[in-house]
TrEMBL record:
<keyword id="KW-0813">Transport</keyword>
<dbReference type="InterPro" id="IPR051679">
    <property type="entry name" value="DASS-Related_Transporters"/>
</dbReference>
<feature type="transmembrane region" description="Helical">
    <location>
        <begin position="466"/>
        <end position="490"/>
    </location>
</feature>
<feature type="transmembrane region" description="Helical">
    <location>
        <begin position="15"/>
        <end position="31"/>
    </location>
</feature>
<dbReference type="InterPro" id="IPR036721">
    <property type="entry name" value="RCK_C_sf"/>
</dbReference>
<feature type="transmembrane region" description="Helical">
    <location>
        <begin position="149"/>
        <end position="168"/>
    </location>
</feature>
<feature type="domain" description="RCK C-terminal">
    <location>
        <begin position="222"/>
        <end position="306"/>
    </location>
</feature>
<dbReference type="GO" id="GO:0008324">
    <property type="term" value="F:monoatomic cation transmembrane transporter activity"/>
</dbReference>
<feature type="domain" description="RCK C-terminal">
    <location>
        <begin position="315"/>
        <end position="399"/>
    </location>
</feature>
<dbReference type="Pfam" id="PF03600">
    <property type="entry name" value="CitMHS"/>
</dbReference>
<dbReference type="Pfam" id="PF02080">
    <property type="entry name" value="TrkA_C"/>
</dbReference>
<dbReference type="InterPro" id="IPR006037">
    <property type="entry name" value="RCK_C"/>
</dbReference>
<feature type="transmembrane region" description="Helical">
    <location>
        <begin position="502"/>
        <end position="533"/>
    </location>
</feature>
<feature type="transmembrane region" description="Helical">
    <location>
        <begin position="585"/>
        <end position="605"/>
    </location>
</feature>
<dbReference type="GO" id="GO:0006813">
    <property type="term" value="P:potassium ion transport"/>
</dbReference>
<dbReference type="GO" id="GO:0005886">
    <property type="term" value="C:plasma membrane"/>
</dbReference>
<feature type="transmembrane region" description="Helical">
    <location>
        <begin position="545"/>
        <end position="565"/>
    </location>
</feature>
Length: 607
């Protein structure tokens, strides 16, 4: 393809300043020395402080908070929460799964169909949160490894988010940036035909090739204690009458034996002591439930005055279980308020009266001392919880209880109202009667007024990290466009269009965006790449809107790593996956979608 390119824009001081800020932004987003929402707001402040070079005035810097995309995303969180609290998806899931029986392929098809279809109208993160317990329960009841269903669940929710404008946050941000730069925003069903094509392609792949590539990481015959290798880490010891530890505090014992040893509970004459353990004095005959590394646990056997009192902990026979306490898996929702609060395992235990016995993070079990370990989004926790704690965790938007537990407060009488509100938001916006931001805010108000969401639940239902991230990255895109930095970067990419066919160039641009999305957030990827995409299209004489769609689809389908998208993180630990599992299953699908999406865009909109 022969493309006549204009001369490269000269590198000016303004561009250098913006490139330096962009580099710092990428470093902060990739390595996360501070939470990404705080990083985004910090970048916003720097952009405004360097206004003479960045051309971001205080008004432009703060415009992200009043941006239509930000407000629409905020409202959609409440709408999604309204649907979730009624139990509508739970009922639909139960009905669909009842049709599949023990057939693994039918279960897979039902999982993909349910997640993909609902994610077009409800934010895909709560969709996955709602379906993980159901999918896990079905897998256990039908002797299917949950590993075979959870990656497809995450992928289907991602792909389903591309059915409508409101399916996922990057769609709304891309629409806003596109409207500002080329004066063409997305309508509600702007790319639904392409979204259907992408979802069908993904479904066929997952039902055939993908199904064969997904390993059974969790054995059907293992219980939770086995999955977390808990028998190697947790045990009960008895303090003998002549023990030198009689009269010592729990904190002193922990420090004297080893820094990675934790005493979780004291069993004393039939009573269980678990609060304020640090300063509790140990008595002769006490039994201590402790957790430690393998090395320290072996060392304990040689300590005078301490002896093993029982077999290591098991799910069915646990000497520390009282009443209805049992082992449950809890997933920390990525980008949740909890992950941003630096909550430690110890604080979690006090808040829910449920000690954390083990943590699986990015496929690996943590062996260090857990009490001071800060919980992160995507962590899978093995928790010893009573029924009251399980109910608390079920209603807390920051956590997903991986087991199927009947939720006591589903507002099932509100299902018609909640579904009607979401349908009204979609229909009114699709007809162009009112802008999507207005209909979404009206729907949010309707959810509260109708009682689907209680007023005190509104703030908990909003993912504030996403809101602040949006508000922070929007001014960066404005600065890149205003200073010519986006145009300069576009010029560095366009020479490839001179040596390959245009469609191949489009596919390469799709993969470039997808790779960038894997190392930074999808919202940041959209803010960075949409201005570049418009300038690339302008340079090579292509359709700018088509390139905006390329970025939108590539940024919303981060399939190649578990850390590229929040739904991948949610299933990572629960499925027992390894990092390479996502590469093995996701990379072929990502390449396939690069071809299908590019051909679809060329067919529907032209390039």
């Amino acid at each position: 393809m022969d493309v006549s390119l204009a001369a490269a824009p000269p590198v000016e001081t303004d561009m250098l300043v913006v490139f330096a800020i962009l580099f710092v932004t990428l470093v902060l987003f990739v390595f996360e020395p501070i939470p990404i929402d705080i990083a985004a707001i910090s970048i916003l402040v720097v952009l405004v402080a360097l206004e003479p070079w960045t051309q971001v005035t205080p008004e432009l810097g703060l415009s992200g908070f009043a941006n239509q995309a930000t407000l629409t995303v905020l409202a959609m969180f409440v709408l999604s929460d309204g649907i979730q609290r009624t139990g509508a998806i739970r009922i639909l899931g139960d009905w669909l799964i009842s049709l599949t029986g023990d057939d693994e392929r039918k279960q897979l098809a039902a999982t993909i169909g349910l997640a993909g279809s609902t994610a077009g109208f409800i934010n895909n993160t709560p969709v996955v949160a709602m379906l993980i317990p159901m999918v896990t329960d079905i897998a256990e009841r039908t002797n299917t490894s949950p590993s075979k269903l959870l990656i497809p669940l995450s992928y289907a929710a991602m792909l389903g988010g591309m059915l409508t404008l409101i399916g996922t946050s990057p769609n709304l941000l891309a629409s806003d940036i596109s409207g500002r730069i080329i004066d063409r925003s997305f309508t509600m069903f702007e790319f639904t035909q392409l979204g259907i094509l992408v979802l069908i392609t993904g479904a066929i792949y997952l039902l055939t090739i993908g199904h064969r590539l997904i390993p059974e990481r969790i054995d059907l015959d293992t219980d939770l204690a086995d999955q977390f290798q808990l028998r190697e880490y947790v045990s009960t010891i008895r303090v003998t009458a002549d023990s030198p530890f009689v009269g010592a505090t729990v904190g002193e014992i922990e420090n004297r034996i080893g820094r990675d040893l934790e005493i979780l509970r004291i069993l004393r004459r039939g009573k269980i002591i678990h609060r304020d353990l640090e300063d509790r004095t140990v008595r002769a005959g006490d039994r201590l439930l402790l957790r430690s590394s393998r090395r320290t646990l072996l060392e304990v056997t040689t300590v005078p005055g301490l002896e093993f009192a029982a077999e290591p902990i098991a799910e069915e026979s646990n000497p520390a279980v009282e009443g209805d306490r049992t082992l449950v898996e809890v997933i920390v929702v990525p980008e949740s308020a909890i992950a941003g609060e630096s909550m430690t395992a110890n604080e979690f235990g006090r808040r829910f009266d449920s000690p954390i016995l083990a943590i699986r993070r990015q496929g690996e079990l943590l062996e260090q001392r857990l009490s001071t370990t800060v919980l992160r989004g995507g962590d899978t926790l093995l928790v010893q919880a009573a029924s009251e704690a399980r109910e608390q965790l079920m209603t807390d938007p920051n956590f997903v209880l991986a087991q199927e537990v009947e939720r006591p407060d589903y507002r099932r009488s509100k299902i018609p109202i909640a579904v009607g509100i979401v349908a009204s938001v979609v229909i009114v916006a699709a007809l162009g009667v009112l802008p999507i931001v207005v209909t979404a805010l009206a729907g949010m108000a309707g959810m509260v007024i109708s009682g689907c969401v209680k007023p005190e639940e509104v703030y908990d239902s909003i993912d504030w990290q996403v809101i602040f991230l949006l508000a922070g990255v929007i001014p960066l895109g404005i600065s890149m466009e205003a200073t010519g930095a986006a145009e300069y970067l576009a010029y560095q990419i366009t020479p490839l269009a001179d040596v390959v066919p245009l469609l191949v160039f489009v596919m390469a641009f799709y993969m470039l965006t997808a790779i960038i999305t894997e190392v930074i957030t999808n919202l940041a990827s959209v803010a960075l790449m949409v201005p570049i995409a418009v300038d690339v299209a302008t340079e090579i004489g292509s359709e700018p809107f088509s390139f905006v769609l390329v970025v939108t689809f590539a940024a919303s389908t981060a399939l190649m790593t578990p850390v590229g998208y929040q739904t991948n993180l949610m299933v990572y630990g629960r499925g027992g996956y390894e990092f390479t599992d996502f590469i093995r299953v996701g990379l072929p699908l990502q390449l396939l979608l690069a071809v299908v999406t590019s051909l679809g865009i060329a067919a529907f909109w032209g390039v």
